[in-house]
Amino acid sequence: MIFAIISAILLFLFLVYIFFLARPLSKNPQNPDVLCEYAHRGLYGGSIPENSLAAFERAINRSVGIELDVQLSSDGEVFVFHDSDLKRMTGVNGQLCKMMSHQIEELRLSETDMHIPKLSEVLSLVNGRVPILVELKGENLDTSLCDKIAPILKEYSGDYIVESFNPFLIRKIKKLIPDVFAGQLYTNVCKEQKKYNPITFMLTIMAFNFVSRPAFIAYNKEYGRSFPVRLTTEFFHAHKFVWTVKGEEELQCARSLKEHAIFEEVFDTKKTELSSSAYFAGGCFWCITPDFKEKNGVVAVTAGFSGGEEKDPSYLDVKHQKTGHRETVKVDYDPDTVSFDELFDIFLLNVDPFDKDGQFIDRGHSYTLAVYYTSESEKHIAEKKITELETDSGKSVYISVEPFKTFYEAGQEHQDYYLKHPEEFACEIKNSGRKKKNLK
Questions:
Q1: Can you give the pLDDT at residue 269?
Q2: Do 359 and 368 form a contact (C-beta atoms < 8 A)?
Q3: Is residue 36 among the annotated active site residues?
Q4: Which end of the chain has the smaller Cβ count within 10 Å, N or C?
Q5: Which residue of the set 97, 284, 287, 427 is catalytic?
Q6: Residue 268 pLDDT more than 80?
Q7: In 1-155, beta strands by DSSP E
Q8: Looking at the structure, do residues 403 and 307 belong to the same domain, yes or no?
Q9: In sequence order, what DSSP letters do the residues of 235-268 get, joined into one string?
């Protein structure tokens, strides 16, 4: 009789665990593009530290999603940094959460000149070009991180998802951003921390899922076949993310299991065929296309319009200065073969940077010069080269350096004009007065 009662109680508790405590929410994201692979703390390695702007830019250039970690300084600024202790990455003793933001800004990562970025800096850099997976750091009931990060994420127009080991952080961020796609990070806490108490046991069996109600499970690859993981992902169909995948072989294995890998030590993912895009307004877009197109490492050159507010402007409206756009070329390139620095030099060789009112025979705002940067490094390179040119020439340079917003492709009749109409193009170059020369 006692055995039957005990068995019934255990069965009841087991059913409560399965259908209430561990059960995830299992919803789909608003944008399925976030169900992809993510570079763990950016594509870091070599001279590029983890969670640095350079690591994130490398991931962007390879069209790879970015996983990053966020935590608060003592004065409530959101920084992107993994460890609670600063020693490993900065050489400085102390905890980030106990330092003021101005002190953190002075630190440098792994003996480089790179700083610990704020989340706002990273979001400005990424600008929606790849999805972001944000890990909320925190091991107690303090959820103030969510109060600080929620307004920042709400203002961000790009795709992002959120994860944490702490179910209370997940619950809080879901209250603040109701439509957020949020997941539970998982490992065998008892085994990993060598601690055996009610809290670590509950975390290990995912019994706190009733708090977080995760839409996905991001699990340690060592425990992918554990009962809690199989229950939540196979029985309840929560989306599967796996960490930390290392090397091409493990990445291919994750793909075969339909897991979304959070990976490192991989630089040749299936999404890296295309690279990066640079945007140059150099007057007539027909005229500056050839030299870009013939450069080794350039994948494609597209004629179009950038800089204005009007959506889908027509060629004639841009030509007649009605939209605020400039004629612009989008240069898709492989950053491992050709650099933005080299592309900017090609741009300079094809324009007159000292003309503030247009280019050669083409006059008006739509034919003025601009570079639309997509990263802080592009901005830095452009501004540095402009300063050098002004110093060398003793003249004012009229190249506007502006953040990239939108690009509208021109009609097919404007694409590769020099190849489709070689005779007309030769006349255009001659009649325009445009000459290729080294303007330095």
A1: 46
A2: yes
A3: no
A4: N
A5: 284
A6: no
A7: 38-40, 65-72, 78-80, 132-136
A8: yes
A9: IS--EEEEEEEEHHHHHHHHHHTT-EEEEES---
Specify whether 97 is located in the same domain as 147: yes
Q: List the one residue out of 411, 395, 227 whose CA is nearest residue 316.
A: 411
Does residue 93 sit within a domain? yes
Residue 264 amino acid letter: E
The answer for residues whose C-beta is within 8 angstroms of residue 78's C-beta and 6 or more apart is: 70, 71, 72, 118, 119, 120, 145, 148, 149, 152
Among the ranges 125-134, 215-224, 416-425, which has the highest mean pLDDT value?
A: 215-224
Report how far residue 204's alpha carbon sits from residue 48's, in angstroms, rounded to the nearest whole number.
Answer: 34
Strand boundaries in 97-249, DSSP class E: 132-136, 160-164, 182-186, 216-220, 239-246
Q: Are 246 and 223 in contact (CB under 8 A)?
A: no
Whether 97 and 245 share a structural domain: yes
Buried b (16+ CB within 10 A) or exposed e, 196-226: eeeebebbbbbbbbbbbbbbbbbbbbebbeb
Last residue within a domain, chosen from 264, 286, 307: 264
What's the CATH code of the domain at 364? 3.30.1060.10
pTM of the model: 0.64
d(CA 360, CA 423): 20
Q: Examine residue 69 and state whether it is found in any structural domain, yes or no.
A: yes
Report d(CA 138, CA 122) in Å as an integer: 20
For the record, the structure tokens of 333 come out as 């390139």
Residues 250 and 290 in one domain: no
Which structure tokens are listed for 351?
């324009």
Range of the domain at 138: 22-264
CB 283 within 8 A of CB 351: yes
Which of 220, 236, 264 finishes a domain? 264
298-306 and 326-333 as β-strands: parallel, antiparallel, unpaired?
A: antiparallel
284 and 237 assigned to the same domain:
no
Q: Does 378 score more than 70 pLDDT?
A: yes
Are residues 173 and 240 located together in one domain of the fold? Answer: yes
Whether residues 245 and 382 share a domain: the answer is no
Q: How many CA atoms lie within 13 A of 16 on its CB side?
A: 8
Residues 6+ away with beta carbon under 8 Å from 423 = none
Statement to judge: residues 68 and 127 lie in one domain: yes
Q: Is residue 270 part of a domain?
A: no
Structural domains in the chain (count): 2
Q: Tell whether 68 is covered by a domain.
A: yes
pLDDT at 105 over 50: yes
